[in-house]
Amino acid sequence: MADFEDELLLDAEDDARTVAYIRAYLPQELKEKFSDDELYYFLDVIIDYYAQSGVLDAEPDADGYIDIDVEAIAAHLAKQAKKDNMGDFSVEDLRWIVEGEMEYAESQCEE
Question: How far is the C-alpha of 47 from the C-alpha of 41, rounded, in Å?
């Protein structure tokens, strides 16, 4: 059981690093607009979107990249946040969160 608990701890640490990265990635005018709880919420919704949409199962292009529609993910976040009574967020603002998460993930692949 310790392995499962260790994995949960590692996941929580990675989520904390991701949220910190996203916060740093946001433009100054958006840094105060989102709480850490909201960023954790949006991170969870992004992960769920990737898992349910099948986007990560797509065939990579010749350079090994998968085409991910940032606008579609941001629109999904806005819709889900409204549905979950988290608030009314603009797709334009949420794009920054999606892009920040993608940049963090890419930076981890480079290490």
Answer: 10
Burial of 72 (0-12, 13-18, 19+ CB in 10 A): middle
Write out pLDDT tens, residues 19-42. Answer: 999 999 999 999 999 999 999 999
Q: What is the DSSP string of 29-46?
A: HHHTTS-HHHHHHHHHHH
CB atoms within 10 A of CB 98: 25
**Closest to 96 (Cα-Cα) out of 35, 24, 4, 13:** 24
Full-model pTM:
0.85
Which tokens hold the place of 87? 């608030």
Determine which of 46-50, 65-69, 102-106 has the lowest per-residue pLDDT on average: 65-69
pLDDT of residue 4: 66
Structure tokens at 76: 């999904």
Pair 40, 17: CB distance under 8 Å: no
